[in-house]
Amino acid sequence: MEYDFKFTSEGLIPVIVQEATGNKRPSGRVLMFAWMNRESLAMTLESGMMTYWSRSRKKLWLKGETSGHTQRVVRWFIDCDKDVLLFEVEQTTGACHTGYESCFFQEMDRKGQPMTILEEAMFDNASVYATKTSH
Fold it and tell me: Fewer CB near the terminus (10 Å): N or C of the chain?
């Protein structure tokens, strides 16, 4: 499939991943941000499971391949400029490799200082990734 999207010069497109709510408009919590290339996008659409491009490891990664914390695609959107994707997913356990539901768990104050984290981690990242590499 050929996409009329605006990929970066590295062949990547940013992806916002959001909790699916079933509402007419996207309204769930943002779970994470990642990157896709054409291959990972095609794999995601074919399998229905989120697959990304890891810039640090320079390879494809199926979300949950190490942790079991998978993301099943419910629906997806392209922004008006065709340069950002938004996926609504059903998340198994937490999305963040640190153990939290969302990668956006650390609230900051207006001075840029971290505030007290108000949520509990959903899993112990040290035991999940004890002998494995995180994303």
Answer: N
Location of structure tokens 């768990």: 105
Distance CA 42, CA 48 (A): 10
Cβ-in-10-Å burial (0-12, 13-18, 19+) of 92 comes to: middle
* CATH fold label, 13-128: Ubiquitin-like (UB roll) (3.10.20)
pTM of the model: 0.89
Rg (CA), the chain: 15
> What are the pLDDT digits (tens) for 8-37?
999 999 999 999 999 999 999 999 999 999
Copy the structure tokens of residue 74.
């419910």
Burial status of residue 100 (CB atoms within 10 A of its CB: 0-12, 13-18, 19 or more): buried
